[in-house]
Every structure is written in structure tokens, then in C-alpha cells.
Amino acid sequence: MLAPAAASAQGASWAAEAFGDESEDYSSSYLKPAPAQRQYSFGPKAFPTIMQGGPQPYIPPIIPRQVAFANDEPTGTILIDSGARRLYLTLSPDEAFVYPISVGREGFDWTGTEKISRVAEWPNWHPPVEMRLRDPRLPKKMHGGIKNPLGAVALYLGDTLYRIHGTNDPDTIGQAASSGCFRMLNGHAIHLARKVKVGTTVKVVARLDKAPASAHLPRSTRSASAWTPTINR
User: Fold this and answer.
1) Which CATH class is domain 20-28+50-205?
2) Which residues are catalytic?
3) What torsion, rounded to 10 degrees, do the Cα atoms 97, 116, 142, 9 define?
4) pLDDT tens for residues 148-176?
5) Spatial distance between the Cα atoms of 172 and 213, rounded to a whole number of angstroms
6) What is the pLDDT of residue 214?
């Protein structure tokens, strides 16, 4: 299984701020495994105006934990608990899938309700002007691929700049590290993308009133054959 590529500590400051896209709609095209790829690093130098995103390998979905989760939402609703760094996909009034995520850092966090407006596989990245002013090294466009900070799949939230998307830097999961997007492991993002559709409701809250009960199904196994992160620093 491919070891997800990761941005270096120097590159993570801009890779965290992944916005913009002009890619194809998501489809189940993860058909053929690809050989393991070398790890990529981002240094302090300026990047070309247009960057290639690298390979687009096969990445299998990672099945998350299924937990007891009392809720009043319609089945298939996404609830994001920013404080706990968790995303829930409701399965019934009593159960949900739970995924660990990364959320917006201080000053970039938000709450509200949106609907998924688009789902895109290996999305392109177009850093907005404000982001490029903060970091002039940024390209105007990076094509989708394993080096692209939007990861393997992105779920667009309404007409905002925010997305739920995969990441090639698993060290950021569980952190407040983005500019308002919600990052997931690529395998988790692929699993979620296959469970939802355009029009799915996404509710973002600072903190859920009640923590879910303990999981009644075992945690996903991340064996070397399923997911083996190797991070360049």
C-alpha cells in the first residue's frame, strides 16, 4: 500500500491552507493499485506558477469506527465537532461513523450549516489571492496528485471556500492546523465520499453537547498493507 506523501515542516504552513479547484467530479476510479511512490518534501523556495501534483495512485478506503451516537439528525448527516476534532456521519438515530480530523486554526475556525455542493477526486488547488499574499512562494495552481495538499478527494461545502478533504500529511490529523477546511486521512476521505452525495447536510459546531458512547466495533486496523505513513522531515 502506498505510504502517503507528506509536506515538510517548512511546507506545511502553506499546504495547510488548501482552497480552490477545477477538477473532475468524484468517481469510483480507484481501480488498479499503483506501486509505492517516493516521499515528497516542500522546501522554503518559491514554486513555479503552475505545479504538477504528482502521481494519482490507488488508495483504498479506510473503514472508520462505528459508535453509539444518539442524535436527532436524518440518516446520512455529517456533524463536525470542531472542539473534539471529530467528524460524524449518522447511520441511524443511535449510531454513526466517527473520523478523526484536522480543523481550522485560531482565527480560521467557524460554525454553521452547509450542504455538499460538489465531490471531486484528486482536485486541483488554486490558492486564493489572500493566501498568496501571506505566502508569495505559492503557485497559482497545482494539479491534483499525491503532492497536492487537497489529497485524494474533496467535498465542497456550499459556495464557500471550505472543503472536507484528504491530506497527504497525517501528522496534522487531530490538530487545529488549517485555514477553515477539514482534513482527513486520504483513506477516510475516500470512505466518506462513497457514503455521501451532493446535497448532504454538513453541520459544524464548536462542541457537541454530549460525547458519544464508546465504540462497539473495533478500531480500523492500519496494517502495513493498508496504510503505512512515512513522513519526510
Assistant:
1) mainly beta
2) 165, 181
3) -40
4) 999 999 999 999 989 999 998 889 999 99
5) 25
6) 42
